[in-house]
Amino acid sequence: MTTVKSDFLNILQERDFIHQVTDLEGLDAKFTAAEKSNGLSAYIGFDCTGSSLHVGSLVQIMMLRWLQKCGHKPIVLLGGGTTKIGDPSGKDESRRLLTDADINNNLAGIRSIFDQFLTFGEGKSDAMLVNNAEWLDKLEYVPFLREIGTHFTINRMMTFDSVKLRLDREQPLTFLEFNYMILQAYDFMELGKRYDCALQMGGSDQWGNIVNGMELGRRAAGLQLFGLTTPLITTADGKKMGKTADGALWLNEEALPAYDYWQFWRNTQDADVGRFLRLFTEIPVDEIKRLEALEGSEINEAKIILANAATAMCRGENAASTAHKTATETFEKGGAGADLPTINMDAKILTNGIVAIDLFVEAGLGTSKGEVRRLIKQGGAKVNDVKITDAEQVIGNNDIIDGQIKLSSGKKKHVLIKTA
RNA sequence: GGAGGGGUGGCCGAGCGGUUAAAGGCACCAGACUGUAAAUCUGGCCUCGUAUGAGUACACAGGUUCGAAUCCUGUCCCCUCCA
């Protein structure tokens, strides 16, 4: 591996962020020079198909954070314009088209996530948030075609995976989607012109789009642009980061409580601990080396550090320590931490008593009565940490301890019942 | 336009008139072992019922039959080959 001189690339390299770079030496030289003067701007694009981002985008966000730490200027490009089109990469079928109102709503949600990770403002290394609708919405068709269209050949566009895949499978690819890569390329050029942005980063699936943008910038505007991609992050058992069977791991508090977020990191597999510490925390690499070398049950210490650091960054220190405390109380002391999911129930229901099966379904610890019945039969259901054996057992006021009832499904899922 | 193949449970995929709530795999849930890990093993995995059981269910709508996921008709959708 080539040794790099700039702080930024050095960090990315030693923390395994880099998959491909278009011109590592050239880029390194540029960063090195910039670190002695005003810093360099670089951008990453995010689409606005949802109102939150999930852990899958976290690698990109961390890169922007490091960029800022090294004195450069991160540009967050939100695809308000391109979201109206839909990136065909990796999609079997067209996305449904979102309305302007949806997109604006999504923009606001995503914006709040970036506020956690980056400092925005007017200073030279302050982050800025740009919406590509700003220029894309205003484009005029014929001038655009004359100016930009001449730099793309259909022959070349057909060779891109995103397009080729659809065609090979004879799935329809609309003209609208076909234009996505041109618009993304246009974004890069536009950012280069407006903000002197010289680098686009992104996931490895964005390579083609990034290269396109570089070429367009060079041909149409004489800009020297660079591209850098991150590897696709998978867990040790080969699953894509960010999605679980229960749903996506959202970065927004409204979409995923801090406790669950913390638990996700706490439950990282041994084999992933070192990699995740490097990518998703700012713990110094030497310290990480020590942590990932821990053996046996001691590696749990590393997992807790990972969970605390990752949660603190995304949800704040308080959220992280509350989640940590809840976990300690729940798992190590067998009690009930304050941060466990809580359901408020009408006091009357408990006064009258409720059958255990119904209570569990009510608490969301099973989707059907049959499921809860099975859970009980297999010994996975507990009320106040006492295993229940009778599905018809009546739970009532007698079971309230310290104003709450703790229900458990298996070792990890707990719900507190409180009366309203 | 012509010829053929197919649509089965969250996914993949067997079944091709009764013994089929539907093999097997994946995913998922519990239990054991552990370290809130992985691997392994055990049990479970449509709904209701303590259970014998009942109700729904094999693209959709009809039909044949004592009996259909399996046969027939129509509709919708997918795929392959030829033009």
Which features would summarize this protein structure in a list?
15 strands, alpha/beta, about 425 residues, 19 helices, single chain, RNA-binding, five-stranded mixed sheet, six-stranded mixed sheet
Describe the structure.
The chain has 420 residues and is α/β, with parallel strands linked by helices. Helix content is 45%, strand content 14%. The protein contains 19 helices and 15 strands. The chain has a 6-stranded mixed beta sheet, with helices on both faces. Strands 9-15-14-11-12 form a 5-stranded mixed beta sheet. Helix 10 (180-195) crosses helix 11, helix 12 runs antiparallel to helix 15 (299-315) and helix 13 runs parallel beside helix 15. The radius of gyration is 25 Å and the shape is elongated. Residues 90-95 have low confidence and may be disordered. The chain binds one RNA strand of 83 nucleotides through residues 170, 236-237, 245-246, 263, 266-273, 296-300, 303, 327, 330-332, 366, 368-371, 373-375, 377-381, 390-392, 409-412.
